[in-house]
Write a structure and sequence with these properties.
This protein has 15 helices and 13 strands. It starts with a strand and ends with a helix. Helix 3 packs parallel to helix 5 and helix 13 crosses helix 14. The protein is α/β, with parallel strands linked by helices. The longest helix is centred in the C-terminal third of the chain and has 19 residues. Helix 5 links the parallel strand 4 and strand 5. The protein is globular, with a radius of gyration of 21 Å. Strands 3-2-1-4-5-6-7 form a seven-stranded parallel sheet, sandwiched between helices.
Amino acid sequence: MKVTMVDPSLFTGRYDDSLCAALADEGQDVTLLGRPMRSTDAIAPRGYDYAPRFFRHSESLRAKLGEGKAFRLIKAAEYGATAALGRLGALERSDIAHFQWLPLAPADRVLLRRLKGRTALVHTVHNADAYHDDAGMQGRGYRALLDQFDALIVHGETTRHALERQGVSPRRIHVTPHPPMRLARASAQDLAAIADPVTPRLLFFGTIRPYKGVDLLIEACLSLWRSGLAFELVLAGKPFMDIDPLIEGVRAAGFGDRLMTDLGFLTEGRLDAHMAKADVILFPYRHIDSSGAFLSALHHGKAMVTSDAGMFGALPDGAAVRTPAGNAPALAQALLRLIESTAIRHAAGAGARAYGDMMGSWKDMALTTIGIYRSVVTSQA
């Protein structure tokens, strides 16, 4: 089959790359449509084609304009024009147009209407609440878009049930478990750029957004530092919220030397280096369906602390240390045991690695996805 994968902003580039390569390995003709590559991207197409179909003009202005309001408005305008007037090209020539993310609902609605009836439409719903509480215009109208698709793919029962509660027909929902991912390996230079830990190191990595609970994490860490516990906290990733008050709060409390920040879009190698240097990796999310960041960290064999939201609540015993979502004191209590005991950290890390080893592969996901494609194409014949 000819498959066009669509992730206009490359929100989940590592996922896209892994799935496209696995589909190509199974004989599918795959093209991934995204934006022009950035220096922080690590996509290296293997067996499939990549085309920078979206945001070509706005990306060329990114270095000059930064990522403020003007840049976002230009991006939105360009995406709207592309959706309404751009050539459909590979999208209409494919058997399947598989959308990973829908970055701007008003524009996406136009694009999907243009494609309806020309090709089968599939969408992976990574989270039923696509952009969480900080969505703004980006998520407004997302639910209505789901009705345009012939099939919806989810990664677990949490998302399936959420969609069914929203009125989506169960017959259109297909579950394909999310396999573990591996980021690009850290180079010697990446590792050298990250200081070695002096005390146990906690790591929060990835995009920093309100729903991910970084404020809860800071609150928990402050309580432990005030109690006399010695450890380091690293925040590594691009903030999509104002975290200056949180950082200033740590400094004002006298613990600024224990907080390390590496903020911005980081290369996968640099993120991998941060994970290699950490003792505990943290996911104190208020809500989530599935977490690619969690799945990309499992192979490091580090102790993982999560909330009990979404997929985390369904983790088997031993895969992670779980705490109630939104509960900073409970998070602090869980961290206390891990910080104080090297043996407990190592045991928790071994559990995380074992869980990653027993999960499915990208080959499994590709075969399941191909089965979904075939069922959709057959139903339209």
